[in-house]
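Progress note, project year one: complex with calcium ion.
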Amino acid sequence: MPKRQRVIIDTDPGHDDAVAILLALACEELEVLGLTAVAGNVPLHLTEKNARIICELAERTDVPVFAGCEKPMKRALVTAEEVHGKSGLDGPELWEPSMELQKTHAVDFIIETIAASPENSVVLCPIGPLTNIATAFERKPEIISRIQEIVLMGGAYFQVGNVTPAAEFNIYVDPDAAQIVFRSGAPITVLPLDVTHKVMTTPRRLRAFRDLGSRVGHVVAELTGFYERFDLNKYGMEGAPLHDPCTIAYLVRPELFSGRHINVEIETESELTRGMTVADWWGVTSRKPNANFIGDADAVRFYSFITEKLAIY
Ligand code: BDR
Ligand code: CA
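Model obtained:
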């Protein structure tokens, strides 16, 4: 078997984060070195707790969970209880986790892991606001050139925004952090709303999760079903975009996705467009490309991939 990709998942669970983590833990192609929680969809004390619940659900309490930054670098925290409920994982019946939270701060874990690993051997997979990652970069810039790749969910070009008319949630919550990451020089792949809105849930796709007949299959169907109601009401969409699992699918099956290597800058100042990912999709500026910006995915194969992988539970 080819070498497993070593991954740190930086996350704010979150329904789609939960599915992404379960998927990652099911992929033999990946070695999940740890989950680093960040404040985002709900406050930090809930995101770190939810990360531990997911590890227990997957029976993977060997995967360490770290708590990171409580709020964005320069701003007050904006959360998304209207999407994910008060707990961040409303819908299925969940429990108080008994798995322990690590004592090390998530930012220290990120720095120490990259510093102690061979060059180009750690992939960062941020699926929440970029506060932990940018804080690590500010504190220890030497780690940046050692990172293999950053594969993140965030931003939008054609789909513009989901939390304001101009911005996607993860970038909007901490645009200053996003700016640091996009200007860092690290190789970045972005899974924006442009692609996540092409991988929508359908009753048939949810049934396939439920038909797995396992506890994980049931919880994934419940989580996705709960989370769907928001997009049904908001956009009149037929289902919900499964945003965060796109990062894991991209890591394991990049051939399901296509995009362009372009320049992406982050708007941090304007009240009107704060958090906008200004993506030069058409190459109309001379700004240097800094990101592989994904625009399309094979939705049918994406859902088959997730369902097949989740079948290991
Ligand atoms: C992103 O925002 C969060 O609500 C989701 O978990 C996802 O990471 C989508 O805009
Ligand atoms: Ca998320």
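The chain is about 35% helix and 15% strand.
The longest helix spans residues 215-235.
No further modelling is planned for this target in the current period.
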